[in-house]
Amino acid sequence: MPDGRETSNQQLAPLEAWLAAAHETPKDCALFLDVDGTLAPVVERADDARVPTDVSRILGRLSAKLGMVACVSGRAAADAKRLVGVGGIVYAGAHGAELLDPSTGEVERAPELEAWHKPVRDFVATIDHAEMRRVGVRLEDKDFIQALHWRGAELEEEAEQLVRDAEAGARDLGFEIHHGRKVLEIRPPIHFNKGIVVSRLVKQSGLQYAAYVGDDNTDVDAFEALLELRAHGDLEVALCVGVSSEEAPQQLVDRADTMVEGPAGVNRLLQEI
Fold first, then answer.
1. Contact in structure between 14 and 239 (CB atoms under 8 Å)
2. 156 and 26 both lie in a single domain
3. For 178-231, what is each residue's pLDDT tens digit?
């Protein structure tokens, strides 16, 4: 590896360049991580997910070393913090609609979301829950986001069809729909995503080296945000790391600079920092 940082970062691949910066000037570096499927293995029920203790320890170490460590999750910010179990880092929840301040523990939420809390819940109440349960669809209450999961359903084809029927009804009422790994989310028609919050945090911090690690379509928005920041000169290095799985969307694979194999691969990457 060349000794001169000014020249070497222009010559290195994004992974090598970001790791070099993390070792040489770590306070200039930001590390963003998805939670489910990235830090925690995917499980049938969201409540059963666990971040391994050794991963939490590594994140604790990195929070003291790097300029910023942030977990960007589809879960509520407080739930993401509970699952990861590390203080002193930023938690962005609900795909960027919530931001938990590590210094105060307070959660900032876009005020316009509150008006959509009841309409989203009212729509979900119209779904035939008995039929959903019969085929194995599970509802996850994320406050103003409601998620329908069919992972592990005995009648998977029927379960997915019922979810698609619910999707059609939600679209007719103007709700936003987002697809994940055997999950569909019904959201308010307000523009928020992981890319918006990642861009905001990078700009606020002024850090020059940013990496994002994620496993699903919602993480591609964060990839795109980092690449745009680099194109506009707000970042010197933007690193996009995809997490492989049998369900990894092609869009994630196409946009990633490098892929690691599941949460175990993420663990190994974190140990290199």
1. yes
2. no
3. 888 888 889 888 778 999 999 999 999 999 999 999 999 999 999 999 999 999
Q: Which sign does the torsion angle of CA 35, 249, 167, 47 carry? A: negative
- Range of the structural domain that residue 260 is part of: 14-110+192-272
* CATH label of the domain that carries residue 260: 3.40.50.1000
Based on the residue annotation, tell me whether 34 is a catalytic residue of this protein: yes
pTM of the predicted structure, to 2 decimals = 0.78
Q: Is there a contact between 10 and 185 (Cβ–Cβ < 8 Å)?
A: no
For residue 75, the number of C-alpha atoms closer than 13 Å in the C-beta half-sphere is: 21
Which portions of the chain are predicted below pLDDT 50?
Answer: 1-8, 10
Catalytic entry in 3, 28, 34, 215: 34
Same domain, 164 and 86: no
For position 5, what pLDDT does the model report?
38
